[in-house]
């Protein structure tokens, strides 16, 4: 989905840890792909660079995020991402351009197992 490269990953010093934590997401652009398996630039979980919700949820503690909090974050992000076309059209992107970019977005069932989805609120 994203233009995933090292310059799009940042860390913020968090005195509550104390230590570094992953920064909020930034500079993300949809990139269409018809590949069924997608890989990220960095490893995020036990399946390495696999760009799945299962892998992200399984690796959340590497980023000092509890499973419950990670599930909340994933659900919140999915609530917005699943409506991507509404937002694009709201900002004047025409239907043809939306159709071209559509392969950048996958359905939750395509990138997560039923077991993982049971963790989502």
Give an account of the 3D structure.
There is one protein chain. This protein has 5 helices and 2 strands, in the order ββααααα. The protein is mainly alpha-helical and about 120 residues long. A two-stranded antiparallel ribbon has the order 1-2. About 10% of the residues are buried.
Spell out the key features of this protein.
2 strands; two-stranded antiparallel ribbon; single chain; mainly alpha
In short:
The chain contains 5 helices and 2 strands. It is mostly helical.
Content of β-strand:
5-15%
Shape: globular
Give the helix tally: 5
| Uncertain stretches | none
Strand order of the largest sheet: 1-2
Q: Which structural category do the helix and sheet elements fall into?
A: mainly alpha
Order of helices and strands: EEHHHHH
Largest sheet composition: 2 strands, antiparallel
Count of strand segments: 2
Q: From the alpha carbons, calculate the radius of gyration and give it in angstroms.
A: 15 Å
The residue fraction in helices comes out at 25-40%
How confident overall, as mean pLDDT? 89
Cα separation of the termini: 23 Å
């Amino acid at each position: 989905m994203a233009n995933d490269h090292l310059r799009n990953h940042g860390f913020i010093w968090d005195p509550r840890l104390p230590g570094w934590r992953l920064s909020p997401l930034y500079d993300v652009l949809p990139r269409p792909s018809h590949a069924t398996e997608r890989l990220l630039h960095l490893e995020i979980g036990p399946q390495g660079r696999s760009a799945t919700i299962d892998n992200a949820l399984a690796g959340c503690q590497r980023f000092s995020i509890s499973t419950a909090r990670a599930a909340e974050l994933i659900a919140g992000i999915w609530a917005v991402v699943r409506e991507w076309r509404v937002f694009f059209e709201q900002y004047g992107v025409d239907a043809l351009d939306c159709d071209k970019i559509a392969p950048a977005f996958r359905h939750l069932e395509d990138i997560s197992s039923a077991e993982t989805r049971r963790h989502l609120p």
